Amino acid sequence: MELRDGERREAAMMRRASEIDTLFASLESGKTVLHVAGLCLFDGELTMDRLRRHLEPRLHLVPRLRRRLVEVPLGLARPYWADDPGFDIADHLDEVTLLAPGDETRLAELVSRLAEQPLDRGRPLWEAHLIHGLAGGGTALFVKVHHAIIDGVSAADALAGLLDLGPEPREAEPAPPWRPAPLPGAPEVVARAAADAAAQPFELLAAQAALVRELPGLVGGPARDLAGALAGRVRRALAGEPTLAPRTPFNGVISPHRNLVFRTLPFDDVRRIGKSLDCTVNDAVMALCAGALRRWLAAHDALPDAPLSAVVPVSTRTADTRGAEGPRISAVLGVLPVHLADPRDRLAAVRDSMRRAKRTHARVPVGTLVRLLGFAPPALAALGIRALTAARWPRFAPPPFNLIVSNVPGPDFPLYLAGVRMTGYHPFSILFDGQGLNITAQSYAGGLHLGLTCCAELVPDPETLAEHFEEELEVYRAFI
């Protein structure tokens, strides 16, 4: 059937990648893979045929699952998202059976190897691996999605949209007609980028104007906090003390090799920990991280006499942008007080640190700053990252922060895929040079599901670290 002119224009439309999409796409390298992942555990048998028949009619609910990234030659401008005319869901689905005995150790080894492999940038940036042979029955699904497509909150939203609320699959929303045009060639992409570049000065002026409007928000509390932090660093420098985050065994040059481990803690216990000192669930998660890391660092004779510094991602999604495509995230800087022996002191220190960080963050125009960053050509950003990597800077420079800790709220009720109940969902995230450990948590159906992403060389014993979370929870149970 011939497309009308309007339909053809719509089908051929490319969407320019956002500034943060571009940042994630350009930072990838041979050892820094920038996909996030999720390990879904099911209590029944799930076949590939059932999985495919469930997912295929729902793909339109997450449009980027059928779009690929179209790069501008030489990386001179932001790339574009375009519908992939060659899309075939079979290219994104794989099936594997665990070696006996099929326990959690075997499962962790398998998903670690799968996580190391980069996604194919010649097609939409996701893949799913159906895993059989689990001890005690059941099935696992390991899903990888590039961070340019999704963030923690949008991943939770997508999961809720693709799964069902009960064992009886719901009727999928009717999909609109999907008629992708042929992918544009290099001349078309360059022409489109040139047209967008013509408008860029006006976009830059708009971003600068927005920053000027928001600058008053930096005056007062945030400015005082920043001045205080800088003054503190000057005092520590004059005293010969470290001014950045303390170095740990996992703050080194990463390799391409990953160790992924996972644990589930009772969510009600974690919530009670927070309530015990007028803290949030996120504060409790951070305190558990601090306690587990304190144990691990002490065992490696690497316990510092200062707190660790943790980047804590914050969703910038609002009611108006809920469901919008792509990652929408910012971050605050919190502390993990591993130097404090008393768990209650650690929890209180985390609470106070996060309150200060969120107060400052709420008034700093982070979104506008990211927009301004996006006016640099992607090739320039990639060149800077490669230069830092080649210099192997973590070998001689102290880290600006020690690790990333994320906590994503999820549904407190079970979800189903093709009639099979999902019993657990463990999220995993990304590593960079200098940050060889990432801790991500998601609440789901009564559990706090932890996913630890580790550089295999920098954290060779991830199971021990995971066990420390369970030990730390027992400590807090004694006084909640």
Protein described:
It catalyses: an acyl-CoA + a 1,2-diacyl-sn-glycerol = a triacyl-sn-glycerol + CoA. It holds the Pfam family WS_DGAT_C. The protein has 480 residues and is an alpha+beta fold. The protein folds into two domains: 13-174 and 184-197, Chloramphenicol acetyltransferase-like domain (Chloramphenicol Acetyltransferase, 2-Layer Sandwich); 244-410 and 435-477, Nonribosomal peptide synthetase, condensation domain (Chloramphenicol Acetyltransferase). It has helices at residues 5-12, 19-26, 48-55, 104-116, 152-162, 186-214, 221-238, 267-276, 281-299, 343-361, 366-373, 378-391, 462-477; strands spanning 15-16, 35-42, 67-70, 80-83, 93-97, 126-132, 139-146, 258-266, 308-315, 329-336, 403-408, 415-417, 420-428, 437-444, 447-455. It has a six-stranded mixed sheet. The protein has a six-stranded mixed sheet with strand order 8-15-14-11-9-10, with helices on both faces. The protein has a three-stranded antiparallel sheet with strand order 1-4-3, with no helix packed on it. Helix 7 packs across helix 10. The protein is globular and about 60 Å long.
Assign the CATH class of the largest domain.
Alpha Beta
What count of helical segments does DSSP give?
13
- In CATH terms, the superfamily of the largest domain is Nonribosomal peptide synthetase, condensation domain
Helix content: 25-40%
Outline type: globular
- The CATH topology of the largest domain is Chloramphenicol Acetyltransferase
Task: Report the β-strand fraction as a percent range.
Answer: 15-25%
Number of strands: 15
Which residues form runs of ≥5 with pLDDT under 50?
A: 1-12, 202-215, 217-242
Total count of domains: 2
Architecture of the largest domain, according to CATH?
2-Layer Sandwich
Pfam family, one: WS_DGAT_cat
EC number: 2.3.1.20
Organism: Bailinhaonella thermotolerans
Protein name: Diacylglycerol O-acyltransferase
